[in-house]
Design a protein that fits this description.
The complex is a heterodimer of chains A (391) and B (300). Helices cover 62% and strands 9% of the residues of chain A. Chain A has 16 helices and 8 strands. In chain A, a hairpin with a 2-residue loop joins strand 4 and strand 5. By secondary structure, chain B is mainly alpha-helical. Chain B has a domain of 201 residues: MetI-like (MetI-like fold). Chain B contains 14 helices and no strands. In chain B, helix 4 packs across helix 7. Classes of the chains: A mainly alpha (391), B mainly alpha (300).
Chain lengths: 391, 300
């Protein structure tokens, strides 16, 4: 209360007005509470504490609180190096070494060995450990313009997971856009037949991923009674492929599952986009003598751009977080990512670090790196969409 | 249409359907395989080449009346006879999933619609800031809060409870956002008329606003239910006791891709039971489903 004699200061009036408005709005605040309180506890606080956790080492053990370690987790995760990958040289003779099956043979003896054992030999690379700095392990090596480079990282599994995830995301997003748009164009007319087909393509979107993955795991069985192997046998193949235990098949199987499950969903979005295009434009184009291809190229495609952008952005985000299919197909007591981590994705690696190895601080750091990647990808997608629109 | 379609055009159009039809068959194949697998006896499941029509249909994958109680060999038991450590067996898991997903659906719609009403129709200090605060959380992917969310639950002492599955799933920024946008278009006069009649804000929310936003509630409800019926990660992290497990969690533990053919029948039966409710829901609410997606672009 201000006394009658001294005039109240302007700020005090403001404050009282403000408090009064807040007091008057108490019903509004009360009605917000049921959302606000759980939001604070289970969304806002976890986001903030996750940021802090990512700067700590924490094993989730009682009486052992998180220890602040600065950016150590991030340094560990993000340390990569690229080096030229030299061929191996025999230490004694200085000759090049060739790899024949499991044996290392020096250059002068290769020809004889190949002739004798009917094997072809390849030039062997140096040992990764000799090339890379201390604490770094090989992620992969690539040959570009005749030179081979080796990529090493302190946490090679993380980079391996990122590499798998990137391949997966690119393939899934592109294939789902192509199939989704193709289906939308093919099933655009609202006939009964088309509506039935639309329903069929949409079914995977409403089926539990875990359930369909269970079915797929049977279809891809490595025994002769697995559906795909049975079909291959019927077509004359003489050996079974053990799809789920084959490094080369892991990613293709996962990509196939995601395309099977995602194309119908994209189809619905593209159909909604197509519906917004007025028929008048097509008719006008027909009068001007445009053929079907021209109509697609100059009307449909440009006008579907917003949908395309949306599908790409959300598809990228979704694919980047792939977890369930990998968990169902490849996670067992021994590991999480399938044979030789060939199916290890970023989120599965996060799960492994967090809930199997209990490196909770480290796993939080992984989560923030993923957030950052997704954020940047979204920005790039949006930017790319905008410049194309302006052009 | 201006040009008259020629015979060639029509033939071409029909031909364009061939790849679509092949694709549609590939879409249905896993469902077909799941259904017939669920009704094949163990011997037929391991038959080479596999049968494409069930030769001797059986219900033993669901309930095998020949399996003796004392037989410890789980292989012989049907889906609903397994899980001896859980009272009610598989039915209990079905109940868990139904209970948790329904609670989340109803709860999140109530909580979000009330907040959305306030944010759309009330004027008070901090309104825009709060709204921005809520929707900015949509940018953060779920794996960021997976570990810290787990630690919060652990701190509260809710690990391994239904509560831990339900309460954290209630505040959904997207549902709030969607409902608020929908409510912005409601006429203020209508609400004011109710106020003149002496209705409290709670009554206005419950009796005026909610009925008016029915379609939005249905669209959001479908998505929330679907997402939580199929949710694997959160129960996986939170639950330990067998009797609380939800269906996706149970199903994921039943798969061992390298076990024998005998267990496949049970897996197919379980997959069928898990996917049926959402499929039935889809058939019933098909129009709302599709409209909801077109409207929101949100995936369940």
């Amino acid at each position: 209360m201000t006394s009658m004699t001294s005039a109240p200061a302007a700020w005090s009036i403001q404050l009282r007005k403000g408090l009064h408005r807040i007091w008057k709005a108490q019903t509004s605040y009360i009605m917000l509470l049921p959302f606000l309180v759980p939001f604070m506890i289970f969304v806002a606080i976890p986001i903030v504490s996750s940021a802090y956790l990512s700067l700590t080492e924490y094993r989730g053990v009682k009486n052992n609180p998180p220890v602040y370690v600065g950016f150590d987790n991030f340094t560990e995760l993000l340390s990569v190096e690229v080096k030229e990958f030299p061929y191996r040289v025999d230490e004694d003779t200085g000759e090049s070494v060739y790899r024949c099956g499991r044996k290392n043979i020096v250059e002068s003896e290769v020809a004889a060995y190949e002739a004798e054992n009917d094997e072809s030999c390849e030039r062997a690379f140096a040992r990764p450990r000799e090339v890379l700095s201390d604490g770094y392990q090989e992620v992969n090596h690539y040959t570009i313009f005749g030179k081979t480079y080796i990529i090493g990282a302190r946490d090679a599994r993380f980079w391996h997971a990122l590499q798998n995830t990137t391949t997966y995301v690119i393939a899934v997003v592109i294939l789902n856009v192509i199939f989704g748009m193709g289906l939308a164009l093919a099933l655009q007319k609202q006939t009964f037949f088309n509506m039935t087909l639309r329903t069929i393509f949409f079914l995977p979107s409403v089926t539990s991923t875990v359930a369909v993955t269970v079915v797929w795991s049977w279809i891809f069985r490595g025994q002769d009674y697995g559906l795909i192997n049975a079909v291959r046998n019927a077509l004359g193949a003489d050996s079974t492929i053990i799809f789920l235990r084959n490094v080369d098949w892991t990613l293709p199987v996962l990509i196939m599952l995601a395309v099977w499950g995602g194309m119908g969903y994209n189809m619905i979005l593209f159909l909604a986009g197509l519906q917004n295009i007025s028929q008048d434009i097509y008719e006008a184009a027909s009068i001007d003598g445009a053929n079907t291809r021209q109509k697609f190229r100059f009307i449909t495609l440009p006008l579907l751009r917003p949908t395309l952008l949306f599908v790409t952005v959300t598809g990228t985000i979704g694919a980047f977080q792939v977890f369930e299919s990998i968990y169902v197909l490849f996670t067992d007591a021994e590991g999480v990512g399938g044979i030789l981590d060939s199916g290890l994705s970023s989120v599965v690696y996060l799960y492994d670090q967090g809930f199997r190895q209990f490196n909770l601080g480290y796993a939080s750091a992984i989560a923030w790196i993923l957030f950052f990647i997704i954020f940047v990808l979204t920005l790039i997608n949006l930017r790319a969409g905008r410049t194309r629109e302006e052009a | 249409m201006i040009e008259n379609p020629t015979t060639k055009d029509i033939v071409l159009k029909r031909l364009a359907y061939v790849p679509v039809l092949i694709l549609a068959l590939l879409m249905l194949a896993p469902y077909y395989w799941m259904v017939i697998g669920a009704f094949k006896p163990a011997e037929e499941l391991s038959q080479v080449p596999p049968t494409f029509i069930v030769e001797s249909p059986t219900l033993e994958n669901f309930f095998n009346s020949n399996a003796q109680e004392q037989v410890t060999n789980e292989e012989q038991k049907g889906l609903f006879q397994r899980f001896p450590n859980t009272e009610g067996g598989f039915l209990r898991y079905f109940f868990n999933s139904t209970f948790v997903a329904s609670s989340i659906t109803i709860g999140s719609l109530l909580v979000a619609s009330m907040a959305a009403f306030v944010l759309a129709k009330h004027r008070f200090p901090g309104r825009n800031l709060l709204f921005l605060f809520f929707i900015s959380s949509m940018m953060v992917p779920w794996q960021v809060t997976l570990i810290s969310g787990y630690l919060v639950i652990k701190e509260i002492g809710w690990l391994d409870t239904y509560t831990a599955l339900i309460i954290p799933a209630l505040p959904r920024a997207f549902v709030l956002f969607f409902l608020r946008q929908y409510m912005l278009s409601l006429p203020d006069d209508l609400l004011d008329a109710a106020r003149v009649d002496g209705a409290s804000e709670f009554r206005i929310w419950a009796q005026v606003v909610l009925p008016l936003v029915g379609p939005a509630l249905v669209a959001m409800g479908i998505f929330v239910f679907l997402a939580d019926w199929n949710n694997l990660v959160w129960p996986l992290v939170i639950l330990q006791s067998e009797e609380l497990r939800t269906l996706p969690l149970v199903l994921s533990t039943m798969v061992n891709a390298f076990s024998g053919a005998a267990s496949v029948g049970i897996q197919m039966a379980a997959a069928l039971v898990v996917s049926l409710p959402t499929l039935i829901m889809f058939i019933i609410f098909q129009r709302q489903f599709v409209r909801g997606i077109a409207l929101t672009g949100m995936k369940g």
